[in-house]
Each structure stands twice: as C-alpha cells, then as structure tokens.
Amino acid sequence: MRTKVFVLATHPMKFSQILPSTVYNPLESFKSVSSLKQQLRIQRPDILIIQEPIDEGVSWRLAYEWKQAIGCEILLMVPLRQYDQIVYQLNGSGVFVVSDPSNAQTVYQACEQLRIKREEIQKYQGEIERLKKKIRNDKLVNRAKLVLIESYHWSEEKAHHYIEQIAMNNSITKVDVAKELLKNVDEKK
Fold first, then answer.
1. Distance of CA 105 to CAs 15, 25, 79, Å?
2. Which SMART domains match (predicted)?
3. Residue 100, strand partner residues
C-alpha cells in the first residue's frame, strides 16, 4: 500500500531521497500554508510533514488543528531550542515531534512509525465497520424473529429455525429473509 505524503517547508530536506518512492508516493512539497490548504481541500495525505520554521511558533498550532481536522498522521520538525516546549504543548495530541535538524534515519524511522500506525488504525476501522454491520444484521434478524413471535405466537427457537430454513431453501442470507419479512409486514400496515 502506498502512502501519500505532503511536506510543508520553506526549505525542505531531501525527503524524496530519504523516503523510498515504492512506499511513500506521491510526495508533494508546499512552501506556504495557503498552498497546502488549497491542496487539502482537494485531497488528504496519509502523512503530513511540517518542517519549522514556517511561521516561527505557529506550526505546532497548525499541526494540532490539522491532526484533529484532517485525520492524517503528522510529523512536526521543530528547532532544537523549541523542542521541549512544543513536545509539552502537543502532549497527547497524536502529533509526532522531532528536532530539526534531524538525520535521515530519524526522519525515515518516524515516517515508518506513522505509516505503521496509520495502517493499524485503518485495519481497526475496517474491523469496527465489519462488527457494526454484523450488529445491524443481527438486529434485523432479531426484529424479524420478533415479528414472527408476535404474529404467530412462536417460540424464539421456532422463529429462528424458520428464518434459517427459508434462507437455506432459497440460497439467500438470513438478513435477506429478515428484510423481506419486515418489508411484507410494513406493506400490510
């Protein structure tokens, strides 16, 4: 999976030499906040690297705000003299802070950590969506069972078996059977 990287820096490091293009591609650089904001309206990066000084002292606020608004991983590179203060300011925000100048290995490792974190988050979001869908489907089937129980005075077990039997006989899912049952009930009302 490729990782889209945006770099906001007035004099950027040679990120294209540090980050392999087989993984970090595309890599786009922006020299001003306004040009980056324009691009952010069109597309979102996976990783945003902000290299100080953009506007001395403002980049940590941008990093914090964009972390909340955009939802991408952010690497903030700040002058060593400000490092402790900015790390304190951004504590718990999810923004990854390194001192600038940093060597290529530090920048690469930071980006790798952010990329891995992003992939894990996407994996968990996919799992959450799968579980939400399962819960919605279970609710549909349970609602259909309830209709059968109330309409025919069946037991929960009999209603469940009926839905399963219809699904097997017609080679469809229990959810499809439940949807059809509920649709028929709504049409009769």
1. 11, 18, 17
2. ANTAR (SM01012)
3. 79
Question: Are 26 and 89 members of one domain?
Answer: yes
Classify residue 84: in a domain, yes or no: yes
- CATH assignment at residue 86: 3.40.50.2300
Number of domains observed in the structure of the chain: 2
Length of the chain: 189
**pLDDT in 10s for each residue of the chain, 189 residues:** 789 999 998 776 688 889 999 999 999 999 888 899 999 999 999 999 998 766 555 788 889 988 988 889 999 999 888 899 999 999 999 999 999 888 999 999 999 999 999 999 999 999 999 999 999 999 999 999 999 999 999 999 999 999 999 999 999 999 999 999 999 887 776
